[in-house]
Fold these 4 entries.
Entry 1:
Amino acid sequence: MRRSIRSCCVLLAAAIAGSGGACRKSSEDQTAGNPGAAATRVTEVSQRLIRGDPGTLVIQREELPTDFAIAGGEPKGASEYSQVYFNPQALMDESGAETGLLGVIANLTVLDAPAAASQRFTDQGGLEIESVIKDIQVATPGAEPLGAEPYSTTIGGADKVLAFRVHYILDDAHVFEYRFRFRVANAVGNLIISALATAEGKEPATLSSRARSIAERQVAKLNSARR
């Protein structure tokens, strides 16, 4: 079963690649009592674009929990990069199922302008219930989808966010995922964070908060790359 789940992580990475505080307080202090200056500051920040190599800007292994290892990375031209990480402990036994994550798949595209990123956000598709279920079936042969539902969330610093909660069975193992797509200025990111079910077949209690934390970390990293 563990071999199949590891294959699941790699296949999902291929599928997503194929689809395509303190600083803010300082700024507020500088513009306190001057609404015009504050408005100018907001405009300047919003116009700054993300600059850098997507392979570097995508969330890195050292920015994830310490139990993760790199399973593979793949560029798609100069503007897009996909990276997959997995938890070897979760692949070997059940001991990490209560609190541990199984895998993280990250995809990042950095374009020339926010308008292009906005269009890319839409063109990638795949974040409707039917599309998510189809993606599971195509990317993970033998998987039995049990549910896919929109997950309402916001991520500070992101211009737009869509998210889904997914549940499926693979080789008798229940797998839960949180899928995020977000746009930050001229960049579009996709994240899939997965975990094995608990011994009772339930979603791990900390999965949603840990998944959101990883998404927040990626968005913050993108905002720090604005120039």
Entry 2:
Amino acid sequence: MPKPVPNLPTVDSAQGRALAQKFKPPIDADPRHMRGEQLEAKGNEGLLRDAQGAAAAMFKVWGTVADLRDKVQDKQLLAKKSQSAVERSLREAEPKIARLRERRDAEQAKIKAMFDAGERDQLGREVRDFARTREGDSMVFIGELISAGDQRSVAAVLAAPAFLTGLTPEQQAAARGMAERQFAPEGTQLVDDLDRAIGRLEQTTDAMTSTIAPMINEWRGGDAALLQQLEGDATDGN
């Protein structure tokens, strides 16, 4: 998984929030920073295009509105055009983000299926019974199975409730993470990359709308605020 770019603000950092207040998009909203080891791997070009395309749609509009806010004199017109552009960018990004979520869910389901078979394994109960007899050493035992590449025995332990294996729920979750990286390294890395990309896109969506929306309302001016009272009156009457 790529490391954060040093000394550059992100959406969820204090510096990123300060930049948002100044109306400039944070650096991790830039599509050039939509990266990932498996996201960039051969065969996943469509995923990378979706991730970068969704980011580009929002980043471009956010940056353009930021550049125009001090140049356009007709604020009413600026408000109208900005709202239209923001809504268009969100519509463009939405199906791309949906495809990323769909692929992430499919990869997670594929990885989960690798270990679900342990529940139906006839030897599964014996493996779990042996793990439980290790008396506090069950985590070491499962770690040894993972290191040895014994996927069948590992699946037997992971498919059952934690209390049947001698593991705590936290230990079983940790063991599952270790097993996923051992037996499905590329799929697990892709899930991580997609989670990070989706998280960045969701943060960008929230940050962009929460930054630009108040400015649009301000640019609309007092008349728009007064006219909104009519909408409230109409609602009250229904």
Entry 3:
Amino acid sequence: RRRIRWTHRHFWPAPALAAGICVGILIGGACVNAALPFSWESGTTFRAIDAGRTLTLHPRGGKNAFHVFLPVPRPDEVVRPLLRPLALAGFTVTAVEIPPGFDELDRAAAAVRELSAAPGGRRTVLLGVGEQQAIQALALAARMAPEEAAGVVAVDTPCTWPFEELSPEVNLVKCRIPVLLLCHAETEADSRKLGAMPGVSVLVLPSPEDRRVTDGEVIGTCLQQTLNGGWKHAD
């Protein structure tokens, strides 16, 4: 019986096939990215924040005059529920990793000032969604001058907090920029109490009839309506 001696010449189709598959995957990925209505950028550079802790989505061809700054514990966890719906609503949005608490709020405030001074002419809007991030957004807003941020939107913020640095009641007194409190029905009472303060507006988020509509989409729609209507500086 004759034995076949295998040489490298017999294996040449394998690497060629693998290379073809890799090229196909790359081309397919490029086509999918090109078809998306937004582009994404990991590692937005701030002098105050490490680049690895940021994630930005840009709407393709979007002319929105606002850039949303979103403090979150982990940017990768809010892509689908928040970043994507906001980008689809026409906003450039940057999620920045800020741990819960007030230890890194000064760094975050410096990043907001960098963003507002960047070329392009977009005005920065602070957004905090959920209890911890809402009080952080309000604490950041208390540090901002009117020329540094167009306003702050806090979703489901509590009325009180044990630490003064993060207390919504304390920080709203210091705010010099417009404040919009969005809330669900279960947090409306707290928001209404805070809404009695000067320069603070309250809007109850509607419960969508279509269960497939996400909170992020509802927030994006509310932002569009509020910002397109024009915000005036707080008194």
Entry 4:
Amino acid sequence: MKKLFCVVIFLFVLLVSENLFAQNNRWTWFAQSEKGDYLQVYYYDNTSISYWKDFSGNQYTELWIKITPISKDITHSVLKWRIYCKTKEILEVNYLDYYQNGYVYESEINYDKTSIVPETIGEDLDKGLCR
């Protein structure tokens, strides 16, 4: 009876801890690069990946990206990226910068796509996300 009780408690703790810490698995590392004195680390939000089509029928993938650190004052940025698979273009829809003092800056919405540059983080995402 004591063993059964211990097993039940163990399973309960395991299930509860998995639910409590599930958000830790939200951001997945996918790249890093040096920018000045900083080593910037890139993560994507694996819960936000979605596939869409625009009015012209072009498929695109949308997801949130987190970059940390950005600068001495900005602890991290969260960006919404849209990757157009067929045309090999990328769009940074908007972003949020989180400052050390608690201030958060939100950018304007952007509608200007740019070509994905070979051997960049954008190309890595394109290869991994486009079907």
